[in-house]
Structure formats: C-alpha cells, structure tokens
Design goal:
The protein is α+β, with helices and mostly antiparallel strands and 271 residues long. Helix content is 57%, strand content 11%. It is built from eight helices and four strands, in the order ααβααβββαααα. It has a four-stranded antiparallel β-sheet with strand order 1-2-3-4, with helices on both faces. About 10% of the residues have low confidence.
C-alpha cells in the first residue's frame, strides 16, 4: 500500500509497474507528449526560446525504467527528470538497496548539492552494483578452482596428487553441474548489466541533448561540464568493468565444460 500511494503521488507511469513484476530484466526509456503544454506554459508566465519550448512540449520529462534479473541483483530503478522544473525523482527497489544507501546518501550532503547532475544518482547506484557483483564472481572462481583440483587438471596447475578416487567422481560431476548452473545465472546477470550500462551512457547523452541542446560533453556550458564529465567517465569505467567481468564469467563456464569432459572420460572405464 505504501508503494502504491508513493507511485500515485509521484505519477509513476503504469508501465513501470509492469516492468517491476517482470523477472526477465528490462531497460526502457519513456517520454510523454502533450500538445497542450505550450499554451499552458505561456499562460503560466514561463518564458522559453523556440527550441526550449519545443523540447518542453514534446519531452516534458524523461523516464528510465530498469529491472535487473536473477537473484544476484533482484532490484528495479525508476528515474525521472522534469525538464521544466529541473527536478529529479529516483526510486530504488530491491533486496540490495541497503548496500547502496550510504553512497547515495553522500549525494545529499550540503557540500555536493550545488554540483550534481540528474544522472548522478543512477551512476552512483550503477557503480555500487558493479562493485557488489565482483565478490560473487570471485567466489565462483574460487569454487571452480577447488573442483578443478579434484580432477588434477586445473586451468592453473596440473597435479594428480589431489585427484579424487573413482568412487567420488559421481559426486564431483554433480558439483560441477551445480557450479555450471550458478555460472549460467551469473552470466545472464553480468550480460544484462553490461547492456544496461551501455544503454545508460546513451541516455545520459539524450538527457544532455534535451537540457542543453547538445549531447557532446565538450560543448556543454562550462558550469555544467565538470560534473557531466564525471558522470560520463564513471559510466564508461563501469561499462568496461562489466564487459571484462562478463568475459571472465564466460571463461569460467568454458573451464567447467572442460572439467565435465575430464570427469566424464575418467568415469568411462569404471562404468
């Protein structure tokens, strides 16, 4: 009920509720169009250039929907920036929100309020999520190395002294399949993460285009350029980290397949 009241108060689009209920993951840009806004703004005393008036009437606000898949980061983000009022709304929902609370709270310190970008809060959440994923990847890497040691044919070392007995190969096969399943879920999450960060980079340019008439950082007004450069640079770093993490996870899955093949061939004489 609390979320229903909040979403109604903030005029959250109904399609976001559809996204929120989707477990497959989604990222989407929603813009509203209202041909009557121009007359309303004129009567209300707002003054715009022809270009600004066109943007405000066609794109009174930009809304971003994000729903992250799987149990690793089961969460959703709703972001809206109102071009007329210059206000930003961001809703964070999920089971990992407490881990990003401190970083987001830093944005509202008095020393930082005068130098923020609408996209900065989303960038902060993205940065935290990328950091949260790395311990999971490391844990899966360690688990796989332990399983590799039991076959004696690991990716890093060849040592048959730790090889399990033939009677334990069935259990080892089961553990490798479990690891393979975990990696499949994790690969899906990292693949999605890499995709939605690249999408956010594009949306950052779109928002700058709507606000300043240009999506190129170098052409932004000097007063806004440093903070927008910071957001662009941070998103670029997150995109790179996510792409490399995805490649690492794909390598881990290949290593699991190799181990499954080794164990399968080792079982053949016994069976």
């Amino acid at each position: 009920m609390a979320f229903e009241n909040l979403s109604r108060e903030l005029a959250v689009p109904i399609r976001f509720l559809e996204v929120l209920a989707n477990n497959n993951g989604c990222y989407h840009t929603h813009t509203a169009f209202n041909e009557n806004r121009a007359e309303y703004f004129r009567k209300s005393g707002f003054s715009f250039s022809g270009h600004q008036l066109c943007l405000v009437c066609q794109y009174p606000g930009i809304d971003l929907f994000v729903k992250l898949p799987s149990s690793f980061l089961n969460s959703a983000i709703y972001f809206r920036h109102d071009l007329l009022r210059g206000t930003t709304v961001c809703l964070l929902l999920g089971n990992e929100i407490h881990r990003v609370e401190s970083a987001v709270g830093q944005m509202f310190l008095p020393s930082r309020r005068s130098s923020t970008s609408p996209m900065q809060i989303v960038d902060t959440v993205v940065s935290e999520y990328v950091a949260l994923m790395e311990p999971h990847r490391h844990s899966l890497d360690v688990s796989l190395r332990q399983l590799e040691a039991k076959t004696g044919m690991g990716a890093h070392v060849f040592d048959e002294s730790q090889r399990v007995a033939a009677t334990e190969l069935n259990d080892l096969m089961r553990d490798l399949h479990l690891c393979e399943g975990q990696l499949a879920f994790f690969e899906r999450t990292t693949e999605f993460q890499a995709g939605w960060i690249e999408w956010l980079q594009a949306q950052h340019s779109v928002l700058n285009q709507l606000r300043f008439g240009t999506g190129e950082i170098i052409n932004l007004p000097p007063v806004h350029r440093p903070v927008e450069e910071g957001v662009a640079s941070s998103l670029s770093l997150c995109a790179s980290l996510s792409r490399e993490s995805l490649e690492q996870v794909r390598t881990l899955r290949n290593r699991v397949r190799i181990q499954l093949s080794v164990v399968s061939h080792s079982r053949s004489p016994v069976d």
